[in-house]
Amino acid sequence: MACCAFAVVLVSQILAALGTLLRFAPWRPRGDSDRASINPATAWQLHSVAAYAAVLPSTVRPVRRPLRAALVLALGLELVIGAGAAVGYVATRGEDHAQLAGLDPTWFCRSTPSARATDGER
Amino acid sequence: MTAAESALLEAPAVRRLGRKGPVTAARQRRSALVYSGLCLLGFLPVLAGASAGWRAAGLGLWMPGAGFVAVGGWAALLFPLTLALFAVALVAWFWAGVIVAPVLVWAGSAALAGALAEEAIWAGAPLVVPLCTAATFAFFGLRADRKRRADRVRYEARAATLPASYARVCALAATSPAPGSRELPADDVAALRYALDRALQPIDRWDGFDDIDQFQPAAFRYQINHLGFALGLAQCHYAPSFQGYLRDAQRNLIERYLQRRVWSYWIYESCWGHLNFRNFDPAARDNIMLTGWFGMQVGQYMIASGDRRYGEPGSLTFRLNARTAYAHDFHTIAGSLVQNFEASDFCLYPCEPNWIYPICNHYGMTALVAHDTLFGTGHVKENLPRWLEMLDTEFTDESGTIIGLRSQHTGLAVPFPTGEVGYAWFANCFVPERARRLWAIARTELQGALTKDADGGTRLTLPGRGIDFGNYRPGFTGAYGSILLAAREFGDDEIADAALRSLDADCGLATDGGVRRYARGSNLSNAFALQGRLARTNDFRRSFVEGPPAETASGPVLADAAYPAVLVAKAFSRGDDLDLVLYPGAGAGRHTIGVERLRPGRRYAVRGALASEVVADATGRATLEVALEGRTPIQLAPSA
């Protein structure tokens, strides 16, 4: 389970980075980039809120939310993994040589009934 | 050409022998030693016949994720994934100073590989991992070698054209506009409103700003700084005798900067970059991206406006919470710059923990210029010689270009897009000869980008799609704006006009409600473009080293004018008089303006207002009724 989560974290972060890089990819359709390059923030005026609202597409601000959510999720998963690793280390510290660095691979990678039983016996 | 100038032109020859600076070389040797030790340590379990877990973990120290190769099977797929994650972690380190990120990924992947190993490791791993490592070093070594060769060729090309180009720049930059001789044309008044609108809103609102992240160039702090620089140029060179909303706008920007939302990035960077969880003072260790930039802004405001309030203790207080505040003023900001310059082996010092950006250090030195101008200190004289020596020896490549970014801890340089254009106008504030050399190189290399548009006008055509650092989107607004400002600073009207033409053609020029802007640019790039529009020869330099003429500090001032009803294109006093040029910002009509610092009880002749004469009250104040319709010049002078 933990290594699956680790892989998810890896993939999600790489995809997030790739998504950012793709914004600058030369093969992106021109029209799309032209629309994207209009910056509604520049239209805001101190004494004319209406003019600003008129040019502000409803999708402008929420666009960033999925990316932020993905990053928060990735960070959360990393914290869970880190906490799990720490708990695993503390729980198995001093045990035999096969449980290297306090992380038993059977507990760590295969969430089988037998592995859970092994955990339960500790 | 003087001997000093000749030496200056030949300076890069000293560096083109491929020698690294001594500090860089020492840091790189140390990094190599640490890495070699790590590899040796990692290979010991293999040599000692330790358990599979230890051997996998040990090989994981050679490269991020290499331990998964030793685990074998499907786990080997985690090797390239970990390498990719390591690249992401490096970006996080560079982006936000997260120094722990690459360490965690590397050490964590080694530990995980150790945990995943079963009875034995893959037999080929002890050979494949070192081979992968060697291949990686060979790849980067060859790439660096290719760059060095290209740099030498570039240096030769530059050396051939530099003397003539330098002479041309010296001629162009020789004459600056006389103080009081200029007014903003109507288009520039409309452009200035872009900055005024943003600056005059309540400081806890961020309308019209790009809100993306608070770590890198799109951060609020940089938008604030450059809007401030634009307003400072307007104050210094066009309206030194206008207080009113122009001063309010600049002070609002400074107060806005002190809000925790703007500088709280330093709380995080202190934790994950310095491992400091207690003291988040943003003007203490490192963080020249704050002290340098903000110091410049505050200093320029004080010079241009004559307002000295930010020299008072606690006037620039960064409040963390109800209990903790970091009290600063312009002196402590400058003090932080000096202390960090002195403490750093490189002299230049980091923005984010570990990352030294020479461009931010140019801002820092310019902030010291402003402090010296204001308070007669000798910070620049004391620090500049070592600073320049280190810039030359540690931060200049073999083509003579300043390296964009160097790691303080490892000594490694990282590609970062900066060039002669971006440095030139800062350097003009403290080393004008070098600045001219930078612009001489830049203007020569820009010649290839000068093309004709459909109307036969000269414009700039830059390769690729560009990038706007203010919102990380494709676009050239920032690049054109920066070129425009640099060209204006050196009186290079041919390139300045080409940059302006390109801005207007490519960047979504729009004028709505009397406000001129570039719709395809970020807020930051709009601020750059505005600076470029306002500046003329040596204006940026003079706003830090000279300020407005002394007479403007004592003569009459326009103190009250309603915004945006009364727009000020010029406000200049020669001691006794006041010369104004006003425009209506909300339609033609009558308005009242207030004038101060007149001689109490004195009678003044007025031209351009409804009354032809006004008498100052006992406090030296007077009000004038003016009818604004288009460009409206108004003059006050003591009656004979």
Rg of chain A to the nearest angstrom? 24 Å
Reported for the largest beta sheet of chain B, the result is: 5 strands, antiparallel
Q: What is the 3D shape of chain B?
A: elongated
Overall 3D shape of chain A: rod-shaped
Contiguous helical run count of chain B: 23
Largest interface: A-B, 39 and 54 residues
Helix content of chain A: 55-70%
Please describe the biggest sheet of chain A, giving its number of strands, its sense, and whether it closes into a barrel.
none
Helix/strand-derived category of chain A reads mainly alpha
Could you tell me the mean pLDDT of chain A?
Answer: 55
The strand count of chain A comes to 0
What sequence of helices (H) and strands (E) makes up the elements of chain A?
HHHHHH
- Strand order, sheet with most strands of chain B: 10-11-16-13-14
End-to-end separation of chain B:
51 Å
If you compute it from the alpha carbons, what radius of gyration of chain B comes out, rounded to the nearest whole angstrom? 28 Å
Folded structure, characterized:
- The complex is a heterodimer of chains A (122) and B (640).
- Chain A has 122 residues and is an all-alpha fold.
- Chain A is built from six helices and no strands.
- The C terminus of chain A is likely disordered.
- The model of chain B has no long low-confidence stretch (mean pLDDT 95).
- Helices cover 53% and strands 11% of the residues of chain B.
- Chains A and B meet through helix 1, helix 2 and helix 5 of A and helix 3, helix 5, helix 6, helix 8 and strand 8 of B.
